[in-house]
Amino acid sequence: MHTHRGKTIWRWTCQMILSLVVFLFVYLLFSLSGILFPVDRKWYAALTKPNWAPSGKTIGLVWGGLYVLISLSLAIVQFKIGLKNTNSTFISLWVINYITNQAFSFFLFKAKRLDLSVIDTSIVFFTSLLLVAGTWEYSILAAVLLIPYMLWTAFATYLAWIIFRLNK
Hints:
Elements: H1 2-36, H2 41-46, H3 56-80, H4 88-110, H5 114-136, H6 140-166
């Protein structure tokens, strides 16, 4: 009996450590675009934006918080069932969402293509919506943690569209 409890504690500890590694890895991956494609503050400031557009600093803070929620969501799924035990659609959605999330910074700040940033952020929103639904079967809490991301990407898509229209 004592040996079984020791194995259970060991398994729990390993799962917790692996979940922490997933959290840190995902957070670093999502933060990568800020390093690879830094904001061209002068160019972005010169764009015509609606008066309700949040400041660049606010946008950066929101994304930082969202990256925590995204990372925590995946860490919870890892802890509960293990990412390797999810289906291929779930993993594919995450890969598509991640790549398009990173590509947004490239399109906007490196390529300065407002049109492509609108298309890209639309894909980020659509895949984030699917991720909320797809995560639900693994963990309701993990899915709920993605709702702010989904809402923000809906807002970001609308804002990108408005900025594109104002600067055509």
